[in-house]
């Protein structure tokens, strides 16, 4: 019998499992996906070839009224390491105000000064060592060894458009344009599965079972005692001596709670599920980033267009294997910019991801052209969606309704972000590389209504769903600040579903921080001393 059962081997669950096992606790991780053995997982550029693979769930959302009735897909990691095994490896933490806002809303102990020590403890940064950054932690964080000419042009062009350069998005201020650091070490991806689980396996305290679909949490009265799961066509049960911890992510964790009788009373009754604990907030408060592209085609073969052709792929693969250099070393999303489109001196409300390829969804046929793509998104969307059960079948995907752009402010900021992205692409730094006319949205799209229509037609997820098991102290909170599910014992949630609000940026690093901090909470260890950096 394990001391702790962790449902989900994603970023938060892997970090937590590693820390608990290293402390001497017996830990069992149940992951629905396979082991992270696919070779492309561990190569920086490999994730591009995995986006359509079975290593991701490809959730279809509900039809979105504010996206012209489209039902865009929301991919999520379905492999050991979760999204951290199949994402672009971007290391972003968010803003100080994100976490201070959590604390002000009732998540006591989760202010920026409280979480910064856990970001630092996790980190093994190859360049930075200061009040904001750590060295020697499980998570490798590195500068890019490969950047394209187009990416460098973007960084210069953003400066020409008035955005200052920053060497560190995770330091004193997020504002600026710069090159991303990535969760890599020695030229290979360092997911939480690599950084935390592999060392923990050597202790003998950790067991990992993959291909396990957890169907429900088991209870004795109000105490969680274990879980039931399906594996190889058979139902099995396993018991936990101490706690059951759900780390299945913002889509699967609320689904599992509801299947276990914890959630909104009407929703459970609709599927004939007996109520174990009425918690109206389960599945509510869904938030995600929505992006849309500004694109210019290139005059030649700039960027990474054609680098995956047969002979070039062989050349690039050999270059990577022999010298750890070349296009295979790229995470493709090599640069970002953060800015406030209302007040340039204020904290950013828009993020832009730059990719030196044509990156667009919804076309009948792939666009086979070299190009430069800037994808802006609103950092702190006001829109709120929900997760509901499709039925009581544990194998069925839940209903996912992000309600993108349902808040008018999200559309206003989206338009402003798109206008700025287009302006960056017209700057002198891009002139040697791109055609004089814009590819998308296109020169004819200028008026406010036309820009809104374009955003509705092209908006897509940035793969950052959070918030569906919100942390807090009010009646709609699902977990308390110690991540305990309200109203039951020995059951916690440790993943991005506990975020009260979406952080200002990519969500992998915060998921690992949540796992780090949760390990001290669960073990009863005094929290790391707050930092006032």
Can you summarize this structure?
With 533 residues, the protein is an alpha/beta fold.
Commentary on this structure:
- With 533 residues, this protein is an alpha/beta fold.
- It has two domains: 314 residues, FAD/NAD(P)-binding domain (3-Layer(bba) Sandwich); 178 residues, Cholesterol Oxidase, domain 2 (2-Layer Sandwich).
- 26% of the residues lie in helices and 22% in strands.
- It is built from 13 helices and 26 strands.
- The strands form eight sheets. Strands 1, 2, 11, 12, 13, 14 and 26 form a seven-stranded mixed sheet that branches.
- Helix 1 links the parallel strand 1 and strand 2.
- Helix 5 crosses helix 13.
- The protein starts with a strand and ends in a 10-residue tail after the last helix.
Number of H- or I-type helical stretches: 13
Number of separate strands: 26
CATH class of the largest domain: Alpha Beta
- Within CATH, the superfamily of the largest domain carries the name FAD/NAD(P)-binding domain
Helix-and-strand structural type: alpha/beta
- Total number of distinct structural domains: 2
CATH architecture of the largest domain: 3-Layer(bba) Sandwich
Overall pLDDT score: 96
CATH topology of the largest domain: FAD/NAD(P)-binding domain
Low-confidence stretches: none
- Please state roughly what percent of the residues sit in beta strands, choosing from under 5%, 5-15%, 15-25%, 25-35%, 35-45% or over 45%: 15-25%
Global morphology: globular
User: What is the radius of gyration?
Assistant: 22 Å
